[in-house]
């Protein structure tokens, strides 16, 4: 069976997390992704957070599946010529260097266009054009400048960053969509274009509901689904909302049986209005279904804290999985707090290819997250990440270099 992006060649000039996430997705959809790395060093993550001496780290392997690796010194004049040949052969160049690095290497947009007018040049940067456009940015900086940190955590505590890599992997996802969109437009215009995904913009896009709340707050001075209501105070900016739901159906994280010794014995519980009567029945407070102080969603808002305390009295009598099973029978939206250990051992996630076991010649078997996007006509097979420069000779031969030329370039340190 063919793959959705069969025939698309990606010159993958990415490193660390944001760019590699993007090109890994494209590889999973069938693109030929050629990762260009510096000889002898490679992507810095190959050696970061290593758990096995001399083996590519999980950080690297889990972000670079299904790619080929070539080593080129793109500051060496002869190395530059190899990169030029690749630019002429590829459809998309993806990069996430610090601002200006590609230009400093001599590969400006104009130069790339001269070499290949159909080339799409896709970049992740920390910020879009403006006062911070020259800044280097990492994940947590993006979470801070994109609005996530100021709105995450509890009212009484400091801003908090989330473990979900919304700045890196989130922006990589945005960039991947930009690339396939530009490829589609190219089928009509025949021209390449620049695609930019700024990490600040990507995080803000994912924090859209908080900008919604900022405007609600400015208009009404209060947000009734926030834990600050009715007894706390609201300031000028959207406050941290703890575990409150970001939508119109109030929710909170509640203790379950075993919470005293298991840090993840909790469940997320949503008091969705259409199933309120069922919730009352399950927790044994049938009278709340008709009591005017509890019967409507509006009446419940000032009492959410007490309502969740009462529901928690019920959830602490069940394990998170027992609670989930009972609540699901009544269509009450909820979800257990799953630890990474539980996720790693989850059979259903392995069956769907969301968790995949991969074999690597140096590190052996390891788990990774497979393609979260499932196409029925373009299934993903996850193959291991390449060793540094594993495909240099193969790709050079495809570019038309002879064995002697390859050896000569190696001797002068160009590849
Ligand atoms: N041959 C020769 N030189 C190479 C090369 C190659 N194959 N590949 C990269 N280089 C050079 C670059 O040209 C650059 O050189 P100059 O600084 O002389 O121009 C140099 O390597 C380092 O690039 P960098 O500045 O991007 O790397 P850094 O480690 O200092 O910064 C990072 C890392 C992530 C902060 C920065 O790249 C960045 O801000 N990127 C944009 C935002 C981003 O993607 N952040 C996500 C980071 S986590 O996913």
TrEMBL record:
Substrate binds at residues 247-249. The keyword Nucleotide-binding does not apply. The active site is at 168 (nucleophile). CoA binds at residues 17-18, 38, 96-98, 104, 136-139. InterPro entries: CoA-transferase_III_domain (IPR050483), CoA-Trfase_fam_III (IPR003673), CoA-Trfase_III_dom3_sf (IPR044855), CoA-Trfase_III_dom_1_sf (IPR023606), Formyl_CoA_transfer (IPR017659). GO terms for molecular function: formyl-CoA transferase activity. Pathway: Metabolic intermediate degradation; oxalate degradation; CO(2) and formate from oxalate: step 1/2. One of its GO terms (biological process) is oxalate catabolic process. Belongs to the CoA-transferase III family. Frc subfamily. Homodimer. This is Formyl-CoA:oxalate CoA-transferase. It comes from Paraburkholderia caribensis MBA4. The gene is frc.
């Amino acid at each position: 069976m063919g793959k959705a992006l069969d025939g698309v060649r990606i010159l993958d000039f990415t490193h660390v997390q944001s760019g590699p996430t993007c090109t890994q997705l494209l590889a999973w959809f069938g693109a030929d992704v050629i990762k260009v790395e510096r000889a002898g060093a490679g992507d810095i993550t190959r050696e970061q957070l290593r758990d096995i001496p001399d083996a590519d780290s999980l950080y690297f392997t889990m972000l670079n599946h299904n790619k080929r690796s070539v080593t080129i010194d793109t500051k060496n004049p002869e190395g530059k010529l190899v990169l030029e040949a690749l630019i002429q052969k590829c459809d998309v160049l993806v990069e996430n260097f610090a601002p200006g690095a590609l230009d400093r290497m001599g590969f400006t947009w104009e130069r790339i266009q001269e070499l290949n007018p159909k080339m799409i040049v896709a970049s992740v940067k920390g910020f879009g054009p403006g006062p911070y456009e020259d800044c280097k940015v990492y994940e947590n900086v993006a979470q801070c400048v994109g609005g996530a940190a100021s709105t995450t955590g509890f009212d009484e505590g400091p801003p908090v960053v989330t473990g979900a890599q919304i700045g890196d992997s989130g922006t990589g996802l945005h960039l991947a969509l930009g690339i396939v969109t530009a490829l589609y437009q190219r089928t009509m215009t025949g021209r390449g274009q620049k695609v930019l995904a700024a990490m600040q913009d990507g995080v803000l896009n994912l924090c859209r509901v908080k900008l919604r709340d900022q405007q609600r707050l400015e208009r009404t001075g209060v947000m009734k689904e926030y834990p600050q209501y009715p007894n706390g105070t609201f300031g000028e900016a959207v406050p941290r909302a703890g575990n409150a739901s970001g939508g119109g159906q109030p929710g909170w994280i509640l203790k379950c049986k075993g919470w005293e010794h298991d840090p993840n014995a909790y469940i997320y519980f949503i008091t969705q209005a259409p199933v309120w009567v069922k919730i009352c029945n399950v927790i044994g407070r049938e009278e709340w279904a008709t009591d005017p102080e509890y019967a409507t969603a509006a009446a419940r808002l000032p009492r959410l804290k007490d309502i969740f305390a009462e529901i928690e009295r019920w959830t602490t009598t069940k394990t998170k999985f027992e609670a989930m099973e009972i609540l699901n029978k009544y269509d009450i939206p909820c979800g257990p707090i799953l630890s990474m250990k539980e996720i790693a051992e989850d059979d259903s996630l392995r069956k769907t290819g969301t968790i995949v076991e991969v074999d690597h010649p140096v590190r052996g078997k390891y788990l990774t997250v497979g393609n979260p996007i499932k196409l029925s006509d373009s299934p993903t097979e996850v193959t291991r990440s390449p060793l540094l420069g594993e495909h240099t000779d193969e790709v050079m031969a495809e570019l038309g270099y002879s064995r002697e030329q390859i050896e000569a370039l190696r001797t002068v340190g160009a590849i």
